[in-house]
Structure formats: C-alpha cells, structure tokens
Amino acid sequence: MVYSGAVDRIIGRPPPKTGDVVLVADGTEKPIGWGLYNSVSMFCVRLMQLEEEASRDPSCALNVEKLLETRISEAIRLRRSLGLPSTNTNAYRLVNSEGDRLSGLIIDIFGNLAVIASSAAWVEKYKPQIKDYVSRLGEINNISWRPSIEILKEEGMDLPDLAEVHPSTSLESVKVVENGIYYLISLEGQKTGFYADQRENRQFLSTISKGQRVLDICCYTGGFALSAAHGHAMNVTGVDTSLPALDLANENIGLNNLDSGRISFVRQDATMFMKNAVSREELWDIVVLDPPKLAPKKKVLQSAIGMYRNLNSLAMRLTKKGGLLMTCSCSGAMTQSGMLLRTLQASLGAASMAGKKITVVRQAGAACDHPIDPSYPEGAYLSNILLRHHCGEHLEQINLSRKGRLLHPS
Fold first, then answer.
1. Is 218 part of the annotated catalytic residue set?
2. Strand 113-118 and strand 142-147: pairing?
3. Is pLDDT of 165 > 60?
4. Is 37 exposed, middle or buried (0-12, 13-18, 19+ CB in 10 A)?
C-alpha cells in the first residue's frame, strides 16, 4: 500500500484517474514498483508488483489482466497444497486480499459457488476479468458478486452505479461441507455468507467436546455448536439474536442427523442470556464467545474494549471451575493492539473472581487458507484464545496437540 500522505508529487499530465496503472518511485525517482491509483482513497496506490519482481517476471509488468490470472492461479495452487477442497471440506477462501497480493479482493468458494467480495475501486473496474478467471475453475457453476458498499464509498464510488452493475444472484442458499459437517449458507447473510476463517478452531473444539456441556454465544448459523455436537458433546446450547441465522442453524441440525435433544438454539441477546444464566447459577464445561466485530476502526477501540470486558466477564462466570472459555475477536484493531489478553485479565476483576486466575491454553487465528502478508500486519484480524478457569487445583491433562499455538500453563 502507498498511503496518500506518503505521496510527495504526481508527475505527468493529465493526472491519473482512479483505477489507472501508475509507476511508483522514491524521492530520487528510482522505481519502487507499479500499482493501481485512487484519487480519493487513503490508499493512494495499491502496489501490485515491486520493481525487482517486474524485472524477474516482465510478462506481468504493467499488465493487470495477466497479473490477475497469475495471482489467482497461484492462490489455487496454494489451496490445493493445503488439501482444499476435499471430500470433507468444500467451503474455503480462495483469495485473501493482501495475503494473496490482490488487495481489496476476496473470493470464497462454497461448493460450486464462488462469492467475490469487492472492497476496492480497481476490483470493480476489472470485474469482468475476475469473473472470467474464477469461472474457469472446473467446480464453479455460479458466481455471486458482493460489493462492500461502505468501503467502496470511501474509494469514491457512487452507490447508484454499484446497484446497477451488481444485480442480485438467483441463488438464495447453498449447501456445503466443512470438517465433515454440513451447513446451509444464506447468500443474504453476513460477509460472504460463512466464516471459513474459524474452520480449524471449530475442528479443534470438536476434539475436546466429548461428554461436555457446551455453550455457544453469538452462534450465528451454529458453526461452533454443531462442531461440538459432532464431537459428541453431552449437551450444546447456541445463542444468537438473528432469526434467519437460527433458522439455518436448526436446519443444520437435521442436515447432520444430530439429536435435537442434545443441541438447541435460543434467540436472545447475548448479554441478557448470560445475565439470566448467571442469576440461575448455570455453568458449562466449555463456553464459546464469538461476538461480531466490535472495533471496526481504531477510533472506537476504547469503547469496544469495555464491551469485550463486559462480555468476557459474564462468559467467565458461566464457565465452571476447571472449564474452558474459547473467546474470539474478529476486530483487527483489537487483535493488532494486543489488547485482548489484557482485557481478558481485566475481566477477572469485573467478574468478581478475585483470587482466581485464568490460564492461556491455546492461541490461534484464521485458518491456513487466510494467508497474511508480513508487510501488511493489518491482515491479522482474528484472535481465538482458549482459557482455562483455574482455581489452584492440579491442572487436568487435556489433549491440545491440534492446530494453534500452545502455551504451557504458568
């Protein structure tokens, strides 16, 4: 990325328009690379190729169409090397924006459907080419184009134009499989319709759920809840406020031939549900807390910290002694600030748990099909932290050898 504040001057007349290919040079006019220009965005240039790369592979130099084809092909090869898709999983991320070096472009694959999320003006400009390359994938029969309206406003695009060129898809839902569990995905749902980034964390939960009572707060269509039930949890409760999401969650119970006596979903505000459960002195062996994005931008981080603290303090009070709390944040500002663990520690006091402690058992992020460019750390947005409500007794031995970084108890 080249931020607008880093641009000293623009050489050439007439000046470039949004979506034009431009060369980027340093103060001595030594070439740095080339990218796509935006006259109004804070991202003045989205760099597509550095100078040394262009020298090694001149076939893509200043050629957006060729670069798109090359990068999408590279993304396909990476996912194939990761075993995606497979007979057990056909819902995954094919292109992860900066992580696959196509800033502003996300492509999720759900069986024979590709959902393309656009958050950059250049992606809108090259929509026909992108759809053409994706349609060449043998398993893709349908493509849904989902512009990120609010972000594209900041890119200088007019909403009437977006509405005109992006008619809604005829598909309303699609059936996928993840880790051997079937899900119905609504194309009217959040983001691209399904949170594939939590796939490995859902699989991990399945491995530790046998015989446990599990509570899934902000369950959406039941991802974690269904994984726990699939892992032979004794009882699973999912909570969410969205009726359409819970309708799908209940359909997903039937799709997987699960015992409806062992898994159920409740429509209620998360905070209200937890407060009521605390008043009834209910406890669960495993609590999952996966709230929506509470800090979309740094300027609201402080208010979001308070919300995370309150939610986690309630979730801790519902976790039995020796139990596990899996708490998540999909807010990039929270993850990148490193504030989540400190907020969780502060939640101990808020939960009236003086003299007690939590142990960090596992830390993880998004699944491996969500690569991150080290030069763009903002791409690391998801935190998934497993905590043990530890009250001084001898720590149980739990098999935590799955995905994710493991930390020895202190």
1. no
2. parallel
3. no
4. buried
For residue range 28-80, list pLDDT tens digits in order. 889 999 999 999 998 999 999 999 999 998 999 999 999 999 999 999 999 99
As a whole number of angstroms, the distance between CA 116 and CA 123 comes to: 10
Strands 181-186 and 173-178: antiparallel
Token couple for 135:
């349609």
Q: CA–CA separation, 218 vs 312, rounded Å?
A: 12
Integer CA distances (angstroms), 229 to 124, 214, 233, 316, in order: 41, 9, 5, 21
Contact 230, 246 (CB under 8 A): no
Digit-coded pLDDT (tens) for 145-154: 999 988 899 9
With tokens 């670069």, the residue in question is 67
Spatial contact of 116 and 130, defined as CB atoms under 8 Å apart: yes
Q: Which of 92, 95, 93 is nearest to 105 (CA)?
A: 95
Asked if 100 and 371 touch (Cβ cutoff 8 Å), the reply is: yes
pLDDT above 50 (res 399):
no
User: What sign results for the dihedral spanned by CA atoms 309, 297, 3, 96?
Assistant: positive
Catalytic residue among 44, 60, 218, 330: 330
Q: What residue type is 210 in one-letter code? A: K
Kindly report whether the global pTM for this prediction surpasses the value 0.85. Answer: yes
The b-or-e profile of 81-94 (16+ CB within 10 A means b, else e) is eeebbeeebbbbbb
What does the buried/exposed string (b/e) look like for 161-181 if buried means 16 or more CB atoms within 10 Å of the residue's CB? Answer: ebeeebeeeebebbbbbbbeb
Q: Which two tokens stand for residue 25?
A: 């040079």
> Hey, how many other C-beta atoms are within 10 angstroms of the C-beta on 256?
17
CA–CA separation, 1 and 45 (whole Å): 6
pLDDT in tens, 76-97: 999 999 999 999 999 999 999 9
Answer for the pair 389, 325: CB distance below 8 angstroms, yes or no: yes
From residue 167, alpha-carbon distances to 124, 126, 156, 193 in Å are: 14, 17, 20, 17
Q: E strands of 40-180, at which residues?
A: 43-50, 91-96, 105-110, 113-118, 142-147, 173-178
Count Cβ atoms below 10 Å from residue 40 Cβ, excluding itself: 13
Cα torsion 345, 328, 76, 122: sign? negative
Average pLDDT, the chain: 88
